[in-house]
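Ticket closed. Logging final result for SDR family oxidoreductase.
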Amino acid sequence: MDLGLSGRRAAVGAASAGLGYACAEALVAEGAQVVICGSDAGRAEAAANKLGGGTQWLVADLADPLGAERFVHEAKERLGGLDVLVVNGPGPAAGTALDTPADAYQAALDRSLLAVVRQCLAAVPDMRAQQWGRIVAITSLGVRQPYANLALSNAARAGATGFLRTLATEVAADGVTVNSVQPGVHATDRVRRVFDEQALAAQLSGVPAGRLGEPAEFGALVAFLCSNLAAYITGAAIPADGGANRALQ
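Final structure:
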């Protein structure tokens, strides 16, 4: 299946490992020109070299809204424009609602809401001008059903989902789609850091598929949403969770 991504210019945030890397890998496999970023130069360069296909890399602090915005502008300069933006970044610290102080929420909003807003607003003008663009944000299944011990993420990413859906309605007529993908538990280092063995087993007990998701499966979904074939899908928030979410909406 030809996704029509050959030669498209794509920026993928936080792609030196995990789900971000999987998304970049899927886009490179489809022939896209990709710029990734990471917080560590060595890891970002190593990831770009492993991805191949002429993948370029940048260092960016995606926990800082201005740093996240700067990543998009620098990626556009490297690529000579931008067709695809995969919004991704480091999640907030773990903690329950009762144990997390109110002062901790601003940093969580910076990295998981305001950084998303600034990346999108940096990418959209060029996409609208060329009448083609794809924005896919990696959020969390916690937007649908809050995760225990991730109060900051649950709150901040819910706000990001509201922004993304609002933006989608405003740019749909310009040929720009805006969607989010909500990962459940996947085989990534972050999942292993957040959940100990017992907690992870408890999470998997609620996953009908009975296993962790594979990052490559997630990357393939994101690549499809970036494709020509997905031109009529926008404003969607799609769970990729092995059936864990069972809500009717």
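The radius of gyration is 17 Å. No further action required.
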